[in-house]
Amino acid sequence: MKLNLDVKVPSKQEWVDAVMADFDSFLQDHADCERKASSMAMSLVAKYPNRTEILPALIETGIEELEHFQQVYQLMEKRGLQLNHSIGGDPYVQALVKKCHSGRLERFLDRLLVASVVETRGAERFRLVSEALEDPELKRFYKILWASEAKHGHIFVKMALNYFDEKQVYDRLEYWVDVESEVIEGLEIKAALH
Domain locations in the chain? Predict the structure, then answer.
């Protein structure tokens, strides 16, 4: 059984070109995204402490995302870059969250599946970045991240399958893949992960 769905709309070459043209800005945004990903996993722990079957995986994911943040920050330090003073909202994630159900149980499913879709898009984009980079250290780093993000895409679907019927999970995941396609197509192209 496949534990996620691939993105339906591939990222455009223009996005890759924008990242390569301003890689420093991309790194700063990437650092912010890793901090937010860690916080998101831990917020699920805080909101759903009774979901004991998934708490270990959520905690592990939160720690792993924080480790990614540390690694990106180390790359930034080597380049003389600072973290952004404040982390702005992410229009991509905000657009997805607006489409979540409001009922407690339905929203729980949606939050898990949105996380899966976001991680799957991250994996796709990190693969593109890895393939476009020439620096061997950066190329290797983004290749490792690509594999990690793909794994996270699976983890969140697996979590959902603990609590919801397989058909319900995959029908809703299909919905989210479609919504994500519309959202990504509508985003401004810039040197940022989303």
Answer: 14-81+108-186
What was the pLDDT predicted at 1? 58
Question: What is the DSSP code string of 34-83?
Answer: HHHHHHHHHHHHHH-TT-TTTHHHHHHHHHHHHHHHHHHHHHHHHTT---
Q: Which of 10, 19, 12, 5 shows the shortest CA–CA distance to 191?
A: 19
Amino acid 151: pLDDT: 86
User: What pLDDT does 91 receive?
Assistant: 94
CATH superfamily of 14-81+108-186: Ferritin, core subunit, four-helix bundle (1.20.1260.10)
- pLDDT (0 to 100) of residue 125: 97
Contacts of 115 (CB under 8 A, 6+ apart): 40, 41, 44, 152, 156
pLDDT of 45 > 70? The answer is yes
**CA distances (Å), origin 127, targets 1, 124, 144, 145:** 23, 5, 9, 8
CB 3 within 8 A of CB 154: yes
Half-sphere exposure of 120 toward its Cβ, with a 13 Å CA cutoff?
A: 26
pLDDT band, residue 162 (cuts 50/70/90): very high
Other C-beta atoms lying within 10 Å of the C-beta of residue 59: 14
